[in-house]
Amino acid sequence: MTSGDDQAYSDAGHTRTRLPETDPYGGAPRRTGRSSSRSLVTVVGVVVLLIAAIAFANRGDNSSAGGSTAKGSHPQTSATAPTGTHPVRTKTGTIPSGFAHTEQGAQSAAANYAVALGSAEMFNTERRHEIVDTVYAPEVAAARQSAMDSAYSSQEFLSNIGLTNDGTPPKGQMFVSRVIPAGTKVVSAKPDEITVEVWYTSLFGLSGDASKNPVTESWYTATYVLKWADNDWKISSDQQKDGPVPVGRDQKASTADDMTKAVQEYGGFTYAR
After folding, report:
1. Residues 205, 207, 212, CA angle at the centre, nearest 5°?
2. CATH dotted code for 35-65+83-265
3. What is the pLDDT of residues 189-245, one digit of tens each?
4. What is the domain partition of the chain in residue ranges?
5. β-bridge partners, 95
6. pTM for the predicted model, two decimal places
């Protein structure tokens, strides 16, 4: 499934975690900005662009179920309401597969692929190769492997986000890289090629008392051009941009112990429309 600031969706207020000016985990003041997650996006994006020439997906008319407004009524909720279609029941490794040859199937595939590509497993060489081979079309997978191997093995990059040279966190700390899709949208559709946008929030950082890169939250939109290959949807090209970012609300940042427990105890989801 996909795949690190706000979560303001309901009147009750699903809200983001807002980090204070000082490091909530103790020690030196936290680094400003979101350099950890942005470093990952920049390094991977630049390398992939150089050797694979990722194209910006053209924005066409939204052919998916967008929220419609009936006369004299409030906007309908069809764009985000569950459709009743069952999630896929098959997997390739740990990644859901066997998506329906429909727009809905493409949206589900895109959301799940975003989760996989944004996971901490991408920092493990063997798992990264499995993920890339699973989610990308055969004709682009080799180029993606080479680009991502270069990016994820950069010692400077790993050092900047607080990981050791082999991509593991320091002793006593937990590395968090998790993508949570907020929604999907079909931008354009052909019988065997569908462009899908996935709007998601990302958690990224190190959880632990000695962490100088505490877990932060960011918002992005990924655009995937999916092609039908080997009886499934596969990514043929992709691009990412910042936002839309909801307005933040005041919440006290959790302790390192609470954050670590949450990551350990709350598993991810299989996403399906």
Report:
1. 70
2. 3.10.450.50
3. 999 999 999 999 999 999 887 788 889 999 999 999 999 999 999 999 999 999 999
4. 35-65+83-265
5. 92
6. 0.70
